[in-house]
Design goal:
Layout lengths: L4 E5 L4 H12 L5 E4 L4 H11 L6 E4 L2 E4 L3 H8 L2
Parallel strand pairs: 1-2
Antiparallel strand pairs: 1-3, 3-4
């Protein structure tokens, strides 16, 4: 069963781009939340993490800040 994955990112953030590329390579569907243009997404991310650093990956409520490949693999079971 696929897990719900949300990424809070900006189009210019290199780690955001790498994170999305990594998920695509592993055939993981995700919802991209562009916090640079979506105020509601930015507010949501702030509530979850208390900070504005991107990327923030939300996998079914498990929050990962930054492109932590091992942690992402562990939480997704890949």
């Amino acid at each position: 069963m696929a897990k719900t994955v949300k990424i809070y990112s900006t189009p210019t953030c290199p780690w955001c781009i790498r994170t999305k590329q990594f998920l695509k390579e592993n055939n993981i569907d995700f919802q991209n939340m562009d916090v640079s243009s979506d105020k509601q997404a930015a507010d949501e991310m702030m509530k979850k993490t208390g900070q504005m650093g991107v990327p923030v990956i939300d996998i079914e409520g498990e929050i990962i800040v930054g492109f932590d490949k091992e942690k992402i693999k562990q939480v997704l079971g890949i």
